[in-house]
Amino acid sequence: MKFKIAIDGPAGAGKSTVARILAERLGYLHIDTGALYRALTLLVLRRGIEPADESAVAELFGETEIDMVLEPGGAKVLLNGEDVTEAIRAPEVSETVSIVAQHPKVREHLLHLQRQLAAGGGVVMDGRDIGTVVLPDAELKIFLTASPEERARRRMKELRSQGHKVTYKDILLSIRARDNLDAERAVAPLRAATDAIPLDTTGKDVDTVVEEILGYLSTVRRCDGCSTD
Ligand code: DC
Fold first, then answer.
1. pLDDT digit string (tens) for 63-116?
2. Which CATH architecture has domain 4-221?
3. What angle do CA 180, 181, 187 make, to 5 degrees?
4. Which residue out of 97, 111, 115 has the highest number of ligand 1 atoms within 8 Å of its CB and is therefore the one to mutate?
5. 3-class state of residue 83 by DSSP
């Protein structure tokens, strides 16, 4: 059986990297749901729309097609047919995306797309509300965390390697601000599902984390078809 694996947690906890490697190891598809919120945010910025204006953002839905081309080893994000895989990682998008992702209409709009992408199973999906809202029936749910300082260091390395000029202080502030927005929004706030396994990645390398998750998956597999009665 091909499972659905949900990986949630705050920005910079290592979700996307862990999810990508896990998917490769399992021959599953990796779905980075943050990329969908980022694609919409990119359009909001390009159009000069006020990100906090929910109605104005929602008006874009009719003329916006966001899609993900899922391929083993990577996914392309398309915004009205344009490949925006790189553009959605820009710092301006990172600074604005939490505001756009707060709107209930945005979340509802992207919920269907996320469920469609995961429908066939054999997916590792990462985000903030995958275990709680998008795939409450996922066979394995992991909630990844790491200290804000460690997450800021990781994000700084990633952005600098992409040529962005950023400071540690600014990134730490932006991570804290995003944590607050993600945790406090009314719809689908960032929180662990009651049946999620918490995993703190502070001081652990990616391979160690992936191995731990594979260990949890093997217990689920052994119990595939287990009856509770
Ligand atoms: O994981 P990321 O940094 O690419 O996520 C970008 C933003 O999208 C982040 O502010 C949280 C939001 N998000 C969300 O609200 N729900 C998801 N399932 C995924 C991301």
1. 999 999 987 667 899 999 999 999 999 989 988 998 999 999 999 999 999 999
2. 3-Layer(aba) Sandwich (3.40)
3. 125
4. 97
5. strand
